[in-house]
Amino acid sequence: AQSVTQPDIHITVSEGASLELRCNYSYGATPYLFWYVQSPGQGLQLLLKYFSGDTLVQGIKGFEAEFKRSQSSFNLRKPSVHWSDAAEYFCAVAPYGGATNKLIFGTGTLLAVQP
Amino acid sequence: GAGVSQTPSNKVTEKGKYVELRCDPISGHTALYWYRQSLGQGPEFLIYFQGTGAADDSGLPNDRFFAVRPEGSVSTLKIQRTERGDSAVYLCASSLSPGQSQETQYFGPGTRLLVL
């Protein structure tokens, strides 16, 4: 069965420090990969997505993610974190060529930013 | 333009009662999804509509849950005989084209359901 693992439940970083959030997936082929961010009281917002091509994907708010097929990973990075980045981050996959288009989400990583 | 809207934003009900949760997708989006997010978890897929029809309802947990989209726009998720375990945030999402896994799903703010 397809699954997504986000091994870090909670991460705290200092403002201005770099950030990497881990995501591993289990799937028979290369799926479509997504990162969403959820702020309190807000809906999920798409940060970036990977379908094919260049394995380094740029997203909004200065985020990027790198797809590594050999590691079945799609880690999210940001070189310098801002206090407004404090939120919960979800990695998700959608099956390649799937008819249902449903997203399978990880359990999320809650990011806290220290001043 | 307007995003996905969901009403009510919060719903408190008693065990055994019936509830309806409404989703108004982005205008022109033919695909609509319902997800459920329990505390400390990621969203879990419930059901997917292409137009008026439910193309995949494999995520509905049991027959107490039902969803409709009669005119291919607004959708209603209906829960009968609610149980305390149904307490969660119910998220709705829509996307422009059906049948395209790479289409971005745009999420609403969710309805927080609490069953007492």
Supply database-style keywords.
heterodimer; A: 115 residues; mainly beta; 4-stranded antiparallel sheet; 0% helix; B: 116 residues; 7-stranded mixed sheet; 47% strand; globular
**Helical content class of chain A:** under 10%
Mean pLDDT of chain B: 93
Query: What's the order of the H and E elements of chain A?
Result: EEEEEEEEEEEE
The separation of the N and C termini of chain A measures 41 Å
- SS field, number of helical segments of chain B: 0
Radius of gyration of chain A: 14 Å
The global form of chain B is: globular
How are the SSEs placed, and which strands pair?
The complex is a heterodimer of chains A (115) and B (116).
Chain A: E1 3-5, E2 10-14, E3 19-21, E4 24-26, E5 32-38, E6 44-50, E7 56-58, E8 64-68, E9 73-78, E10 87-94, E11 104-105, E12 109-114
Parallel strand pairs in A: 2-12
Antiparallel strand pairs in A: 1-4, 3-9, 5-6, 5-10, 7-8, 8-9, 10-11, 10-12
Chain B: E1 5-7, E2 10-13, E3 19-24, E4 31-37, E5 44-50, E6 53-56, E7 65-68, E8 75-79, E9 88-95, E10 106-107, E11 111-115
Parallel strand pairs in B: 2-11
Antiparallel strand pairs in B: 1-3, 3-8, 4-5, 4-9, 5-6, 7-8, 9-10, 9-11
